[in-house]
Specification:
Length: 159
């Protein structure tokens, strides 16, 4: 499918022949939870290890990151829900159905005030831009990429 596109944006490492790959941005990954699901004090592994987690489906970069971060913290996540739909995942977090590791740039501004974010270390993911090397309208693609970079810069949470 992606081979027929002129541009692909993905956090997954793709092997697309005839495309260049460049880093579009890196984003911090935070733990999202409904306000009353976790203690206000600094979190411990004990606070997390028996909580339900919500992730994207297998093979998605967020699902892989969830497994990796939990492994680094010393436990295996108890996956309660998996979905291919980021909107559904955000709503399930807001309803208090589980915790999720979420991207702070891609999903910036997508949560209600009922959701709080916890930093559990310096976890990030990279998002890549794959551009077809031989496309018919390089100028339009260049203009789109420039506008996209400006929006990302403007909308990214400030450190």
């Amino acid at each position: 499918e992606a081979q027929h596109a002129d541009l692909v944006i993905s956090a997954n490492h793709l092997d697309l022949h005839g495309f260049t790959k460049e880093l579009l941005f890196s984003e911090r990954i935070a733990l999202a939870a409904k306000k009353d699901m976790l203690p206000n004090a600094p979190l411990t592994t004990r606070d997390l290890q028996h909580k339900p987690f919500i992730t994207m489906s297998a093979g998605n970069s967020l699902q892989t990151l969830t497994d990796e971060i939990c492994r680094r913290l010393g436990f295996q996540p108890r996956i309660a829900l998996q979905s291919d739909d980021p909107f559904y995942i955000r709503k399930c977090i807001e309803l208090g159905l589980g915790l999720a590791f979420v991207p702070t740039v891609s999903w910036n501004g997508q949560f209600s005030e009922e959701v709080i974010f916890h930093d559990l270390g310096d976890h990030t993911r990279d998002v890549f831009l794959y551009r077809k090397m031989h496309c018919t309208n390089h100028q339009a693609l260049d203009n789109f990429c420039l506008a996209l970079s400006e929006v990302i810069q403007k909308e990214s949470p400030k450190a």
